[in-house]
Amino acid sequence: MVPKAPKAPNAPNAPNASITPLIRELLVQIGEDPGREGLLETPERVARAWGEIAGGYAQDPGQMVRGALFRAEGKEMIVVNDIDFYSMCEHHMLPFFGKAHVAYIPNDKIVGLSKIARVVEAYARRLQVQERMTAQIATCLMENLQPLGVAVVLHAQHLCMMMRGIQKQNSYAVTSEMLGAFKDRSKTRAEFLTLIGERP
User: Fold this and answer.
1) Are 79 and 167 in a shared domain?
2) Which pTM value belongs to this model?
3) Does the first or last residue of the chain, that is N or C, have fewer Cβ atoms within 10 Å of its Cβ?
4) Residues 146, 160, 191, 198: which is the catalytic one?
5) Range of the domain at 127
6) What secondary structure does DSSP assign to 45-90, as a single string?
7) 89: annotated active-site residue
8) Is residue 68 included in any domain, yes or no?
């Protein structure tokens, strides 16, 4: 069972007025003057930005999949490569970003390709850790599409490693989740890894 991210109370999906005074206070605490010209509208801008950044809390990825299923006879692997994503690390609330590679093997049903990208986006637009996000995407597709197998690989760079702490600029993290046929069959797994440019 994949651990679910905690639900954000009053998760913003539009400008949230209650965030504005918090950002104003943050500016004061880091030594800035929220009354200076360049920062006058910053709290409102940040509130609007978080409405987008945390918009995934208001979305149901499973319903996205269930609402776009089609009958199919084929059982060959379907791969969606290089899905860009941007997320926020829950440990430091700094961005991590990269590409997702998602594959599944149909079992009577396929899902609209854009919905796979939307599932990635819905989980990315929450406070996250890359490992959990990888598992959530795979589990969502496995449970709602019920394919023969699902594979997900994420490549990401983390600003919490690049602009603070260890400050390693060229490092990136790779996480994977293999379910069903991808977990049980090494040949299937190797085919997927080859298609996305990874060494099996």
Assistant:
1) yes
2) 0.90
3) N
4) 160
5) 62-195
6) HHHHHHHHHTGGGG--HHHHHHTTEEE----S-EEEEEEEEEEEET
7) yes
8) yes
With respect to residue 99, please indicate whether it lies within any of the assigned structural domains.
yes
**Is 130 annotated in the active site?**
yes
59 classed as catalytic: no
Q: 173 in a domain, yes or no?
A: yes
Of 25, 41, 52, 90, catalytic: 90
- Note if 90 is an active site residue: yes
Residue 72 sits in the same domain as residue 40: no
Residue 160 annotated among the catalytic residues of the structure: yes
2 in any annotated domain: no
Among candidates 125, 145, 131, which has minimal Cα distance to 175? 131
Q: How does pLDDT run along the chain (200 residues), one tens digit per residue?
A: 555 555 554 444 455 778 999 999 999 999 999 999 999 999 999 999 999 999 999 999 999 999 999 998 888 999 999 999 999 999 999 999 999 999 999 999 999 999 999 999 999 999 999 999 999 999 999 999 999 999 999 999 999 988 888 888 888 999 999 999 999 999 999 999 999 998 66
Q: Catalytic: 101?
A: no
Q: What CATH number is given to the structural domain containing 119?
A: 3.30.1130.10
H/E element, 140: helix 130-145
Roughly what angle, to the nearest 10 degrees, separates helices 19-29 and 42-53? 120
If asked whether residues 71 and 43 sit together in one domain, one would say no
Catalytic residue among 89, 101, 136, 140: 89
